[in-house]
Design goal:
The chain has eleven helices and seven strands. It has 306 residues and is of the alpha/beta class.
């Protein structure tokens, strides 16, 4: 069980949507909170909504700027001392037929959704390890990482990268006191549809202009989505329970099961095993963090039913 009270959390994309919901939950549970965001207007509104006084620090940050990221981490440490929890949440969305995507589309989305997470880890993980108190890294992936669908290749591929990163890091870092988690939400009431407003001019050559216009004219369906407060509380529970996978929407259950079944059936189990290969490379064939997560989730489900 991870107790966030008295700790300091650094939340990227923390001034609106999912990030703000997570920041609210962490603040409410007693954590100091640093909200880092690229938009000044969102930062001002978030500070007012959080109303956390000296326990909240708002920083303007473009997570693709590595020098700025290091400076933001320095500023956060100067105010709160140690950093304990990193929430790699900032992200952008883009969808449409793969054949229409330009290099700029790929570079923009991956620059934020993948490289932004890498920048957070390279910048802040050594700071967490250095103080020896342990910590937590939550990275926002998506249910698209687990149930990828057509028309979202760039987005889902990047989110799968992030989820896999958390799975790999868990085995390495948990013995050092740092827990990692892949947060995979379904649809949430966020501003991700407006993420194009922060797209750099040098990456403006998009093949999805027409696709974006059609999506924006489809109408407001946000009443079908979970609120930022709901997902914020879900992430808080996931941190407190040390969960590897923090999932939200029950509607994805069939898709997750089907993917697991499809990959299981594709294993060539009719072929004989090479015992020497299996023995020498035993570390490749299963991730103990995933095995532990199975038992954790069974226990949590039993507790909810009790």
């Amino acid at each position: 069980m991870t107790d966030v009270a008295g700790k300091t959390s650094f939340v990227t994309g923390g001034a609106s949507g999912i990030g703000l919901g997570i920041a609210k939950a962490l603040l409410g549970a007693g954590s100091n909170v640093v909200i880092a965001d690229i938009r000044d207007d969102h930062l001002a509104e978030a500070v007012a909504e959080l109303d956390g006084g000296e326990r909240v620090l708002a920083l303007k940050l473009d997570i693709t700027d590595r020098a700025a990221y290091a400076k933001a981490a320095d500023t956060a440490e100067a105010k709160f001392g140690k950093l304990h929890i990193l929430v790699n949440n900032a992200g952008v969305g883009l969808g449409g037929p793969t054949e229409l995507a330009t290099y700029a589309d790929w570079d923009w989305v991956n620059g934020v959704n993948v490289n932004g997470v890498i920048n957070g880890i390279v910048t802040i993980l050594p700071r967490i390890l250095s103080h020896g108190d342990g910590g937590h890294i939550v990275s926002t992936a998506s249910m698209g990482a687990l149930v990828p669908v057509g028309g979202s290749t760039i987005y889902c591929a990047g989110k799968a990268y992030v989820a896999s990163m958390m799975e790999c890091m868990r085995t390495e870092l948990e013995p050092k006191g740092v827990i990692t988690a892949a947060f995979c939400p379904g649809a949430v009431q966020t501003n991700i549809a407006k993420s194009g407003e922060t797209r750099p001019a040098e990456l403006s050559d998009s093949g999805y202009a027409a696709t974006d216009r059609r999506r924006q004219s489809a109408g407001d369906l946000s009443h079908l989505f979970q609120t930022k407060e709901e997902v914020g509380q879900r992430v808080l529970r996931g941190i407190e329970n040390n969960e590897l996978y923090i999932l939200t929407h029950s509607e994805f259950l069939e898709g997750v099961r089907e993917r697991g079944e499809a990959t299981t059936l594709a294993v060539q189990d009719h072929l004989p095993e090479n015992a020497e290969y299996k023995s020498i490379f035993a570390m490749l064939f299963r991730n103990p963090a995933i095995t532990e997560e199975i038992e954790r989730q069974k226990r949590l489900k039993a507790e909810r039913k009790a």
